[in-house]
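Moderator note: this is an archived Q&A kept for reference. The question asked for a predicted structure of one protein chain; the sequence and the answer are reproduced below.
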Amino acid sequence: MAKLVSIGEIIADSFNHDNKTNTTIGGAPLNVCAQVDKLGASAIYLSKVGAGNYSKNLLSQIDDSNIEKKYIISSKKENTSIAYITIDESGDRKFTFLRNRPCELNLSYNDYKDLVFEEGDIFEFGSVALKSAKSRKTHDKLIQKAKSAKASIAFDPNLRLNLWNNDNLLRKTCIKYFKYVDILKISDDELKFIFSQSENDAINKLFSYGIKLILLTRNKDGASLFIKDGETYNCKGYKVDVIDTTGAGDSCFGGFLYQLLENNEDYQEVLDFACKCGAYTCTKIGAISGMGTLEEINAYAFEPNS
């Protein structure tokens, strides 16, 4: 059976809710991986965390998942990053990061070299871990290994400008990786940041790199799916009682990749399901803890936006 392999950061998401401080495990590629796992597909996560009880307690939050964790490496030299999240009344978030010798910038290919990709698998990553030359080299080798096995490459830029402090470098890094990508998830704001063009021109530019599927998310207004040399599909999204939007985009992408792993080629159905996954996650606190199972998503009474 085809599987998802994701690589990237593990971050401690720390936020206040009801006058209590909550710390949950996070990181965009991990969130995507967790959603795919919750929906019932095979998922493997490649990452690194700091040694000690703090990271062990953090990892315990995914102990009951079926995510393959053998490639989550413990390091005594680097630290697990922390994201302090402020949630406003509408559920939107602001991030402040504490990063000291971060693990995600020191990912080593030697830790993952025995990983086997197979045809039909999906290899997924984001931009946060691409800031260092060492982690980029690891990504590059895994991308080539996945391509050689005829696996698909999926990329979600998930731009965190305050982690890069150099907008132009971040922009150039994303563009460099577009040429490897088969499946892209990008928000409308990220599209505007990377390309100073109209949406239509920017989408055509992305297709020129060889990308086959583009999932363009529009926050509460749903998403669009663009197929290279094909149709465009739209979903206006779903009305839910929003508590916390953390992980909603990751959940949407996870739902999307799950449907692709299931070989669903009804792209309108795939898009609608992805948007339902993202909306469902907004109804609870936390990213992974808020994500729905296949049964929960199918049973929830979603109300489409008008």
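Archived answer notes: The chain has ten helices and 15 strands.
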